[in-house]
TrEMBL record, chains A, B:
<keyword id="KW-0479">Metal-binding</keyword>
<feature type="binding site">
    <location>
        <position position="333"/>
    </location>
    <ligand>
        <name>Ca(2+)</name>
    </ligand>
</feature>
<feature type="binding site">
    <location>
        <position position="57"/>
    </location>
    <ligand>
        <name>Ca(2+)</name>
    </ligand>
</feature>
<dbReference type="InterPro" id="IPR001464">
    <property type="entry name" value="Annexin"/>
</dbReference>
<dbReference type="GO" id="GO:0001786">
    <property type="term" value="F:phosphatidylserine binding"/>
</dbReference>
<feature type="binding site">
    <location>
        <position position="325"/>
    </location>
    <ligand>
        <name>Ca(2+)</name>
    </ligand>
</feature>
<dbReference type="GO" id="GO:0009409">
    <property type="term" value="P:response to cold"/>
</dbReference>
<dbReference type="InterPro" id="IPR037104">
    <property type="entry name" value="Annexin_sf"/>
</dbReference>
<feature type="binding site">
    <location>
        <position position="287"/>
    </location>
    <ligand>
        <name>Ca(2+)</name>
    </ligand>
</feature>
<dbReference type="GO" id="GO:0005509">
    <property type="term" value="F:calcium ion binding"/>
</dbReference>
<dbReference type="InterPro" id="IPR009118">
    <property type="entry name" value="AnnexinD_plant"/>
</dbReference>
<feature type="binding site">
    <location>
        <position position="283"/>
    </location>
    <ligand>
        <name>Ca(2+)</name>
    </ligand>
</feature>
<feature type="binding site">
    <location>
        <position position="327"/>
    </location>
    <ligand>
        <name>Ca(2+)</name>
    </ligand>
</feature>
<feature type="binding site">
    <location>
        <position position="328"/>
    </location>
    <ligand>
        <name>Ca(2+)</name>
    </ligand>
</feature>
<dbReference type="InterPro" id="IPR018252">
    <property type="entry name" value="Annexin_repeat_CS"/>
</dbReference>
<protein>
    <recommendedName>
        <fullName>Annexin</fullName>
    </recommendedName>
</protein>
<keyword id="KW-0677">Repeat</keyword>
C-alpha cells in the first residue's frame, strides 16, 4: 500500500505549474536584492545568486506542497504543462533552485517511476556510483510490466539497453546473476506447479550443500521462475530440508556473493522486509546514507511504503517517521516525511 | 518488404467471417451425404466425416481467398467477429476442416505474429520438436518490440515466461546463448559508438583466435549490443583482421555450436540471407522439410519476403515461387504461393 497522500481535490496541472513558477519567481526576484525587503544575503553554489533567508522556506514549502502530494500521472501532466506554458523544463528549474539531498529527493520523486529506475540503474553502472545491489533491487522488486517500462525508458534516455550496460559494467559471478535478472520478464500469475517446486527445491538444496553457489541451475531458477512459483519452491525447501534457504546461504557471513544471493531471495519473496532492512541499516549506520534513504522513500512511496512502515515499527519498536526525523533535517526531512504519509496533502 | 497482397477494397470482417462460415458449412452439409449430389465419400482422421471430393477444392480456395490476403490486424478482426457472430473459435473450425501441411500453414498464418512466434518457440522447447535453431531464429530476427510482444503472448498462452521454458529445456553452451538472446531488448536506434566497435571487434577476434567460442564476453557482445552497433563491430572486425567473423568461425564445419554462432550472426546482421539459406536447404534437401518451409513463409510474408525472394533468385538462379511450386502441391502449394505474392489478392 502506498503512503503518498493526495488532496481530495487536486488543482489542475495549469494551476500547479503556475504555483511552481511563482515559488521559483519569488526566489529569483528577491535574489536580485533590488528592493527594501533585502535583509541578508548568502552565496550559493559558487555563483552570484543572493537569497533572502526569510523567503527561502516559504517557497520550498510551496514546491513540496505542489510536487510531493501528486501521483506519477499527475506529476507527468505538471511537467508537460509547465514545459508547454513556460517553455522550460521543470526538472532543470528545480535543479537550479534547490540543492543537496533535498534536490536529489525532489528530482527523483518528480521523475516518473520508469525514468527514475532507469536513472538509478544507469548511475549504478557508473564507476563512482557503481552498485550491484541497486541494479538487483530494481530488477527483483519491480513487477514484470514495470521492469519492462524501465527498459523502454532506458532506451529513450541512454540510447542503449539496460542489459547492455549492466553486462558491460559488471563482472564475474555478479554479472552472471545480474544480466538475467534485469532481462527477465517473469510470468506474474498465481499458478504454481508443485511437482516442479519439489524438484527445484531439491536442485537448490544440492547446489547449496555442494557450495556451488554460482551454479547455472541455481541462477536459472532464481532468474526465470515466477515469484509465486519461487515462493512455492522455497516453502518446499524449508519444509523438506529443515532450514530456510537464506539460513543455508549464511555459512560465511563475510562472503559478499552469498549476501547478494540472500538479498535477491528477499527482494523476490518479501520486498517489504528487504526495504525495512535497507532503511534500518541506513538510519542506524554511522552517519546516514542519504542516497539510499532517498532511493527507498521515493521509489516505494507510491507502491508499498505502508507495509514497509509496519515492518519497520515491528522490527525496531520505533515508527519510521520518528527515525527519519531523528536522522535528517530541514526541507530534506520535510519531503521524506511528506512522502511517507505525514501531514495533510 | 512484405510479399503479402491485400485487395484494394477489403471486405468487412463480418463479410469475411460469413464467407468462411459458408466455406465450412458447405463441407459440413455435404459430408453428411444427405442429398442427391453425393458422389464419393472418404474417411478422414479416423472419424465418421464423409467428404465429397468435388466440393473440396472450391471451399479451400474460398478459405485461402478470405484468410490469406489479409494482414495481421485484419485477420485479428476476422477471428473476433467470427467468434462473436458464430460463438466458435475460427482456429478450431479450421483445424477440423482442413489437415496436413495445408492445415499447419493456414493455422500459423491466421495467428497474429506474436502468438505464432510464441507457439513456435514453445514447440521448439518440447522434446519431440526441440530446436535451438528456431528459438534462435525468432530471438534474433524479430525487432525488440516484436520480441517483447512474443514474450507477452507467451505469458498469456502458456502461463510461463519464454526465458523460463528456454532455460529449463536447453543445456550447456546453447543455453548460455539462447537465454540472453530470448531475453534481450536491444536498443534499436542507429547510433554507433566507433571506439566501442573497435575494442569489441578486438575482443571477438581474441576469443575466436583462442577458440574460446563460448566465452562470456563473446556472448555478452552478441546478445546485448544493438544490431547497428554489432554491424559496426563486425565491419571493423573484417577490415582490421582481414576475414569476416563468419569465415573465422568456420574452422570446423562439423562443429554444431560454431554453425550456430554463424547463424546467429547472420540472423542479426542480414536476416534475408539467413532465410534464403533456410529455404535453399529446405527445398534442395532429400524430401522437403514442410515445417521449415511453412515457418519461413508464414513468418516473413508480412515482413521481408520480397527481399528474401530477391536473395533466392540471385543465389539459385531460379525464382522462389518456381522452386516452391516444384516441391509442393495442392492447397498447400496454393497457400504458400499466395503468401509469397502470387495471383490476385
Amino acid at each position: 500500500m502506498a503512503s503518498l497522500k493526495i488532496p481530495a481535490s487536486v488543482p489542475s496541472p495549469a494551476e500547479d505549474s503556475e504555483q511552481l513558477r511563482k515559488a521559483f519567481a519569488v526566489l529569483f526576484v528577491r535574489t536580485r536584492g533590488s528592493n527594501g525587503e533585502f535583509l541578508m544575503s548568502i552565496g550559493r553554489n559558487g555563483n552570484d545568486h543572493h537569497l533572502i533567508f526569510a523567503g527561502w522556506g516559504t517557497n520550498e514549502a510551496l514546491v513540496i506542497k505542489v510536487l510531493v502530494h501528486r501521483n506519477a500521472e499527475q506529476r507527468k501532466l505538471i511537467r508537460e504543462t509547465y514545459a508547454a506554458t513556460f517553455g522550460k523544463d521543470l526538472l532543470k528549474d528545480l535543479e537550479r533552485e534547490v540543492s543537496g539531498d533535498f534536490e536529489r529527493a525532489l528530482l527523483l520523486w518528480t521523475l516518473c517511476p520508469a525514468e527514475r529506475d532507469a536513472l538509478l540503474v544507469n548511475e549504478a553502472t557508473k564507476m563512482l556510483t557503481a552498485s550491484n545491489w541497486i541494479i538487483m533491487e530494481i530488477a527483483c522488486t519491480r513487477s514484470s510490466h514495470d521492469l519492462f517500462m524501465v527498459r523502454q525508458a532506458y532506451h529513450s534516455r541512454y540510447k542503449r539497453s539496460i542489459e547492455e550496460d549492466v553486462a558491460y559494467h559488471t563482472t564475474g559471478d555478479f554479472r552472471k546473476l545480474l544480466v538475467p535478472l534485469v532481462s527477465s520478464f517473469r510470468y506474474e500469475g498465481d499458478e504454481v506447479n508443485m511437482t516442479l517446486a519439489k524438484s527445484e527445491a531439491k536442485i537448490l538444496h544440492e547446489k547449496i550443500s555442494d557450495k556451488a553457489y554460482n551454479d547455472e541451475e541455481l541462477i536459472r531458477i532464481l532468474s526465470t521462475r515466477s515469484k509465486s512459483q519461487l515462493n512455492a519452491t522455497l516453502n518446499h525447501y524449508n519444509n523438506q530440508f529443515g532450514n530456510s534457504i537464506n539460513k543455508d546461504l549464511k555459512t560465511d557471513p563475510t562472503n559478499e556473493y552469498l549476501t547478494f544471493l540472500r538479498r535477491i531471495i528477499k527482494c523476490l519473496t518479501c520486498p517489504e522486509k528487504y526495504f525495512e532492512k535497507v532503511l534500518r541499516y541506513v538510519i542506524k549506520g554511522l552517519g546516514t546514507d542519504e542516497r539510499a534513504l532517498t532511493r527507498v522513500v521515493t521509489t516505494r512511496a507510491e507502491v508499498d511504503m505502508e507495509r514497509i512502515k509496519e515492518e519497520y515499527q515491528r522490527r525496531n519498536s520505533v515508527p519510521l517517521d520518528r527515525a527519519i526525523a531523528g536522522d535528517t533535517s530541514g526541507d530534506y526531512e520535510k519531503v521524506l516525511l511528506a512522502l511517507i504519509g505525514h501531514g495533510d496533502a
